[in-house]
Amino acid sequence: MSRPRFRSLRGRVCIRPESGISLNPGRGNADVEAAALIRNCLTQRQVAIAGISLALLAVLCLSPSLFGDRVSAAVEGLGAASPLWLWIAGFFFAATSLSGALAWHAAIRASGSPLPLLDASARYAVGCGVNAVAPAHVGTALRIALFSRVTKGGCWTVSGAAAAVGVTRVVWLGVLIAIGSAGGVLPFWPLLVIGAVVGGAAAAVVVSNRVALPTRFEQLLAAFKSLASSPRDLAIVAGWAFAGAAGKVIGATAVVTAFGIDHPLSAALVLVPAVELAAVLPLTPGNVGLASAAVALALGSQGVDSKIALSAGIAFGALELLTGMVIGAVGALALASPWMRPFVRVAAIVTATGVAAIAFGATVVLPAVS
C-alpha cells in the first residue's frame, strides 16, 4: 500500500491520501477530509495566538484584581445573578448559533450544493468553537474551508453564501440600531453603512445578470443571484437570520433579568446592536472584554448602576464564550467520528450530559429548594 504524501503550504500541514486510498470506506471522503482539516490545517500562528489568548484570559479570570478594584467588585457581583436566568440566556445563545447554521445551510443549498442538515450544522459549529478561543474571525475562515470541501465551487461559493447570510443579518441589525437611534442611545451613522452594504449587494446582483463575469465571481455571487430569483429561499435565509437576532435579544434579556435590572427587553434592544458593532473586529477570544465593555456602556446609558452594568457585561461575555466552546466541541466530535470508535462517542456524550445535569442541579435546583 502506498503511503500518504505530506504537503506544506504557508505554515499549514495537510495530509493528502494517494488516489485509491480510503481512510474509512463506510464514510465519504468529505467527512474524512473535514476532520483532517480541523486537526491539521490551522496555521501554527493561529494555534499559537489562540493558545496565548486563552492563557492570558485564564490568568485574568483567576486574578480579576489585575483590572482594578472596579472590575474585581463587578466579578464579585456575579454572585447576585439568578442562575436560572443565566441558564436560559445560555440556551438562547446556543439557539442563535443553530439559527446561523441553518441560515448557512439554506444559502449554500440555494447556490446549488444541497448538504445534509446535521453535517452542515457540525461544520458551522466547529467555526463557532474556534471563534470562541481565537480572535480575528479565525473560526469563520475555518468554517468556510470546511464547507468548501463539500460544496460546488469551493471557497468562492461558500464565501458568497456566507456574505449573503451576512447581508440578511445586517438588515436585522439595522432594525435594532434604528430602535436604539430613535431612543438617542446609539449613533445614526451605522445605518448609513448598512444601507451602503445592502445597496452594494443589490447592485452586484444586477450587474452579474447583465454582464458576463469570470467564473470565480460567478461562483461568489451564486447565492445572491439564487436568493434574488427565489423569494422562498430568500425568506428561509432571512427567517433564520431573524431567528438568530431574536435569540440574541432574548438571551440578552435573560442576562439583564438575572441581575434584576428594570425594563430588561428595552435594555437588550440597545445592548445587542452595541455588542454586534463591537464584534466587527474581535481582538480577543470570543470577543470577551470588548463585548463586556459594550454591554456595560449600553446599560450605563440606560441609567443602570455602573457596578451592576459591568457585572452583567462580564456575565454576557462569559456565557457567549462558554456556549461557543461547547457548541464547537459538539461539532468537532461529530466531524471527527471517522477516527472514533462508537463506544468512545457514546461515552463522550454520556459524560457531557452528566456534567451538564450536575451543573444544572448545583446552580439552579439546589439554590431553588434551599
Observed structural traits:
two-stranded antiparallel ribbon; 74% helix; 370 residues; mainly alpha; 3% strand
What does this structure look like?
Helix 12 runs antiparallel to helix 13. By secondary structure, this protein is mainly alpha-helical. 74% of the residues lie in helices and 3% in strands. A hairpin with a 2-residue loop joins strand 1 (5-9) and strand 2 (12-16). The chain starts with a strand and ends with a helix. Mean pLDDT is 76; it is low at 1-28, 37-41 and 62-68. A two-stranded antiparallel ribbon has the order 1-2. It has one domain (23-61, 82-339). The protein contains 15 helices and two strands. 42% of the residues are buried.
List the SSEs and their pairings.
Elements: E1 5-9, E2 12-16, H1 29-40, H2 44-62, H3 69-76, H4 83-110, H5 117-133, H6 138-148, H7 154-182, H8 189-210, H9 215-220, H10 222-229, H11 231-258, H12 264-278, H13 290-301, H14 306-335, H15 342-369
Antiparallel strand pairs: 1-2
Helix pairs in contact: 3-14, 4-5, 4-7, 4-11, 4-14, 5-6, 5-14, 6-7, 7-8, 7-10, 7-11, 7-12, 10-11, 11-12, 12-13, 13-14
In short:
The protein is 74% helix and 3% strand.
Number of strands: 2
Strand residues, percent = under 5%
Indicate the overall shape. globular
State the end-to-end CA separation: 65 Å
Counting structural domains, the number is: 1
Q: How much is the average pLDDT?
A: 76
Strand order of the largest sheet: 1-2
Give a quick account of the main beta sheet: strands, pairing sense, barrel closure: 2 strands, antiparallel
Order of helices and strands: EEHHHHHHHHHHHHHHH
Helical content band? over 70%
Counting copies of identical and different chains, the oligomeric state is: single chain
